[in-house]
Amino acid sequence: MSNLERLLRPKSIAVIGGGAWCEAVITQNQKIGFDGHIWPVHPKKETVNGLPAFKSLADLPSAPDATFIGVNRTATIEIVGELSAMNAGGAVCFASGFKETADGQLLNDQLLTAAGDMPILGPNCYGVLNALDQVALWPDQHGLVPVTSGVAILTQSSNIAINMTMQQRGLPIAYVVTAGNQAQQGIAHIAQTIIRDERVTALGLYIESFGDIRAFECLARLSKELNKPIVVLKVGRSAESQLATISHTASLAGSSAGSDALLSRLNIASVNSPAALLETLKIFHCQGRLPSRSIASLSCSGGEASVMADMASRYDLTFPKLHNGQIEELGRHLSSLVNLANPLDYHTQIWRDKVAMTAVFAAMTGPEIDLTLIILDFPRLDTCQADDWMIAIEAIEEAAKETGRPFGVVASMVENFPESIAIRLLASGIIPLCDFATSCEAINAASENDFEIHQALAMTETFKSTSLITEADAKQELSTWGMDIPKNFAESTLANVVERAQEIGFPVVLKGEGIAHKTEAGAVVLNLCDCDQVMVAAQGMEAATFLVEEMITDTIAELLIGVVADPAHGFVLTLAAGGTFTELLKDRQSLLLPTTEVSVQASLKKLAIYPLLDGFRGRKVAKIDAVIEAVMQLQRFALDHANKVAEVEINPLICTEERAIVADVLLVKGTL
pLDDT tens, 388-408? Predict the structure, then answer.
């Protein structure tokens, strides 16, 4: 992959074009303090935005390190070819109308050919902001200011990038880079260069599609090696946003299950909004990954303590109980009316008492607390005085310094956290967080997960056609891979169905074959106890072939296990509540194949239905080893038939004390 160093940290910048967008690039470089050469290029104009213009690229003093190309798509291709031939450092391609349009694929191919080994960003993107080296290959206003260290934000959307630069949350942003169509340089490749910059502390990514999964795996390993965490905002979770994504950058959004599984596998944090992305980056900038989700919370209001507790519960954050030493220390400084607990409402008696506030804040932290949070909403600085609040800030700073433990300050609304205070706190290593719910989402995202980073199966191709395999044939295939199936027979005549039922032994189950959703179609009848019941059930089904099989009667719980070929992410394994609970509970966990027994077991334990497997309220315990083995057998089947399996779903997998039985299976095979 091309070297991006010159493009991201240029000493000379060429600006091709004379319109308002190109003039803005010059203005923004001057505004941010770029101290290198800026060379406008225009065949007719003498000057562009006050700078003398060169007639052509050939007239430049030397090959530019970076170029902003602000002309139409056809001219862009020609200019990229010229820059590549003269050994330029790289270019931002601003023009749209490439592979995101019906007639743009050929132009996209021509662009890549013209670029050769020279790196290009886009097309259809704004470019690069580098606040470390004061570079703005950027055709619009932005909110960055020079910094000496900070986080990097990479997006496919230029508008999302602009919006994030305008944040007033105190977050130091070192780089903002837009990738647009990612014709040559994908987000993961760009990030691999940026994360190596020693001045960058963490990465935030806005992603519409992953593209090169191997590049993201490499990025994840770099993140772990350099101890620079990554947080992602992945869009395309709804049908509407998937359509919008395709129309915007010709990207395949893929399934949310697949993207969630991929991010979890790579130990990359995931959030659901730009605000949560920014708040998570604050945590990463100050503290890196949090070991777990254990927090302490302090406020001088019972209402704030209650809201914080409610929000934390949504994101599985925990409040460790106070130990005796903490209770004793808090009791020295707080009124007897204060309920000493976590979260803590410390009342207002110590307000303005810096010594007492420092002692209380310090007492609420400890090795078992990953982050100690003080709830503090500032008054409006334009109409109110904030002297008393500054005493609290000084107390928090003293407590953090004395204990050496991670601290954060949370305002219930972003409006109540002045940017100047946020900047001050960040400089002291204290995390300024805005909004209860967003803060809790960020803390949850910043916590370590327990999955290893390992290679996923290569992305699958889209099948040209698919066909549904009969349940009898599907079960026979799975049984050859060691899966436990009920004793069954497929028959086409009523007399043979009754005979087979007698051979199996009552009770039995009768199913109509060739029907995808049998239960909804009335093609499944359970617990048939004699020949007459079997005959009546068969006569009531509109089926050419019947499947009669043993009835499993000692069920502890039912699961769904399935594998789907996802073109965006490879094979996605789903573990979920099964049977009638599948739609009702929407209780699921997803993993990418191949996975491990350890990961499967960890995912099973995250299911809401797991207590049923584990002997809920003194009931029988399912054989978890048999469940895990069934999942691993299904994985082996899917991987061995990777070019044929479009979908395989076992629902339910009946879990008993001794077995994990494939009670129903849907198998769809595809043709490439």
Answer: 999 999 999 999 999 999 999
Report yes or no: 629 and 658 within 8 Å, Cβ to Cβ: no
CATH architecture of structural domain 488-550:
2-Layer Sandwich (3.30)
Secondary structure, 3-state, 338-404: CCCCCCEECCCCCCCCHHHHHHHHHHCCCCCCCEEEEECCCCCCCCCCCHHHHHHHHHHHHHHHHHC
Residues 73-125 have pLDDT tens digits of: 999 999 999 999 999 999 999 998 888 887 888 999 999 999 999 999 999 99
Task: Tell me the pLDDT of the chain averaged across its residues.
Answer: 90
The one-letter amino acid code at 448 reads: E
The distance of Cα 554 from the centroid of its chain, to the nearest Å, equals 40
Sign of CA dihedral 625, 626, 631, 635: positive
Q: Which of 389, 474, 443 is nearest to 281 (CA)?
A: 443
Q: How far is the C-alpha of 408 from the C-alpha of 312, rounded, in Å?
A: 15
pLDDT over 90, % of the chain: 73
Q: How far apart are CA 325 and CA 156, in angstroms?
A: 51
How far apart are alpha carbons 344 and 328 in whole angstroms?
Answer: 14
Locate 656 and state its tokens: 């008993």
36-52 core/surface letters (b: 16 or more CB in 10 A; e: else): bebbbbbeeeeebbeee
Using CA atoms, how far residue 536 sits from 490, 492, 498, in Å, is 17, 15, 10
pLDDT at 236: 74
CATH superfamily of 147-275: Succinyl-CoA synthetase domains (3.40.50.261)
- d(C-alpha 178, C-alpha 195), whole Å: 15
Q: Give strand pairing partners of 91.
A: 67, 120
CA gap 280, 266 in Å, rounded: 17
Pair of tokens at residue 556: 């502890």
Q: Which two tokens stand for residue 444?
A: 């949850």
Fold adopted by 557-671? D-amino Acid Aminotransferase; Chain A, domain 1 (3.30.470)
Q: What is the pTM of this model?
A: 0.85
Q: Which two tokens stand for residue 216?
A: 């993201």
